[in-house]
Every structure is written in structure tokens, then in C-alpha cells.
Amino acid sequence: MDHAKVAGEVVEAVGGASNISAAAHCATRLRLVIADESKINQQALDDNEDLKGTFAAGGMFQIIVGPGDVDQVYDHMVADHGVREVSKDEAKEEAEAGGNIFSRFVKMIADIFVPVLPALIAGGLLMALHSVLTAKGLFGEQSVIEMFPALTDYDALINLVSSAAFAFLPVLVGFSAAKRFGGNTYLGAAMGAAMVSPSLLSAYSMTDAAAAAKFWAYTDQSSVWNLFGLEVTKVGYQAMVIPTLVVTWIMCLIEKSLHKVLKGTADFLLTPLITLLITGFLAFVVVGPVTRELSNYLTQGLDWLYSTLGVFGGLIFGFFYSAIVVTGLHQSFPAIEIPLIKQGDGDFIFPIASMANVAQGAAALAVFFKTRDTKLKGLAGAGGVSAVFGITEPAIFGVNLRLRWPFYCAMVSAAIGSAG
Question: Which of 2, 26, 142, 304 is an active site residue?
Fold first, then answer.
């Protein structure tokens, strides 16, 4: 390979050195941050026999050159054409800084949730198995465990394991988000654990007055803290995403600021202490209550939207439902679902949620049948099946949101289905 010649051809094909904001390389690939991707001559790159392929990922345009050659091609790009040389980490940071706010937000969410996906996928499939074992009319008038009572305890264990990742989702998200935001991952996990502490009323039970009263009677404690002149409700954040993300982001800011001020032994001892102390108060006094208030406004707005606009309300709600799932605010829906059922008005949320779930699942399964990427195919297949059974996080965060268009197509499909 003529490394100098290949370097010149690459620079020309991507629109010249001026179109390369930053360049780095790994063992086999050139990693380029491109200013204007419309200037890339993809055909020229595809026809170049010395190049093994190209793809875009993580905000960078990556060109596969091969081991032993990529570093020499890269050196010629820098020396002969004035391409800006940066490290892999610097290139990643610059790529993340590019694009619009929505694109950067989507990438941040993907970076946080992709590592958590195996637990969510496994949990979703186990929930599906639990549903098969307990559903009546699937294999006869009775459920499987009613026909075979010996399977009851096995089903109970399956149900316990399946719900763990979702009940303790703040722990997983706290760990992953802290890593993404540059903080101590174990402090992130500790804050996530605090947000689902057994000393708090479960978020799942907060809309059930009888269950809440039984919990406080059993624990023999007050249902509120008196902090800074405020009454703070002792309610957990099971399966909630946005509160955990905000809390972890704040925690990482505090931790990194303290690292700059404290040094040596003081840093080792005091930084974790002060970080968790401040973040803990902010989590339960500010972030949590504000997020819950947002959830209340959301549910009240949805109730008004559907009852006032009818078919159009269903269309709008169905369109945005999956986006609401991304924020985690859908956890507040039981607060209006229960009153609707009790009043006999009918629960319009569950059918619309089902439309959105099936649409996201179908989109992920479409990716499964179309993609040639083995890893993506595995994620899409498992996530698609899980979404059809009602657990959409693996499909949304692992496949559809990363690829964007499957997510958008599923939103439109859900809107059409919900309008009916």
C-alpha cells in the first residue's frame, strides 16, 4: 500500500482537510469528525481497493484501513495535508459536541442505556415467560400454573428475578450515568440505591392508599421528612429514569468540583462524603418533588387531551407515548388510570400504551430482519419480542432510538393505531 497516496485520496474523498474538524485512529480505523457530511464522496471511498469499508458511529465517520497501515496513513494525513491531530478521547468529545441538542441528547441516552440493556432484555423476556405461565385462555381455560400447581414456586422465582432490573433501575442507571458523566460509578450506584431504599414507600404503591397506609403502619414511621421547613414525602423512584439521570448529573458536577479543590487524603476521605451528603438532600428535597410535579401536570394534561379531543387526542397521545417512555414519566400514569377505572369511564391509557409498545416492538423486529450486523440483530430480535409483551426499554434504547428512523416510524404507527 502506498500510504501517502491513500492518505491523499481519503482527504480528497471526505471533502478536503478543511472539512475534517478532528482526526484520530485506533488499531484498524481512521476516526474523523466531519464538518459537512454532504461533501463526502462515498463512491470514491467504496471504490478504493486499499480501504476495507466505512461507517458512521458516535458522531464520527470511520474508515477501515487495517492494522499496520492505518497509523501510517494517518501520519501522512496530518503531515502532508494539515489534518488536525487529536486523541481518540478528544475526537469522541468533539463528535459529541457537534450536532443539534436533540441529537446529542439521544446519543447521551443511548450511551447510558446500552450497557444496561442485557439486564433489561433478560428481565423483559422473563416477564414474558411469567405472563405465559399465568395467562388464562392461552392453552385452555386455566393458566399453566393452575393446570400444573407444582410450577407455582418456579413461576414466583421467575417473576422475582424478572422484575429486579426494573424495580432497581435507578441503581443500574446511576452506575451507567456516572460513568457517562465522568463521575465515580459506585457513588452513582449508591445514590440510585438510596432512591429505591426499602425505607421509602415504593413508587408502585403511592397511588394505592390502602397499601401506603399498611406500609407506614408496618414500618411505624412518619410518611414525611421535615427538612428546611418543607414536608418531603418518603416515596421511592422505582423504574424512574429522569430523576436518576438528573441526580447523577448533579452528583458528578459536585464530585468533579471537589476533586479540583481537595487534594490527597482530604480528597479521598471528604469528596465521597460531601458528594453523597449534598446530592442526597438535593435528590429528595428538590429533584424528586419537581419531577413528580411534572408528572402530575403531564397526567392531568393527558386526561384533558383525550376527554376533550377524542380521536385526535388518541392520535396525539399515541404519537408521543414512546417519547414519554424515554423520559420515564409514564410511571405516573397509574395515578390517573386507577380513578378512571373506579369511575367506570374506562382506561384509555392502557390501550394506547399497548399500541405504542407493539409499534416499537414491530420496528425493532423489522430491524432484526433487515440488518446484517450480528450484534444489532441479536438486540433487535430480543428487544422486539420483549416490546410486544409490554417491556419496550430494550427495543427503544437499544435499537430504535439509536437508529432514530425506526423510533419515528413506530411513533407514527402508534398514533394511527391509537386514533382508532
Answer: 26
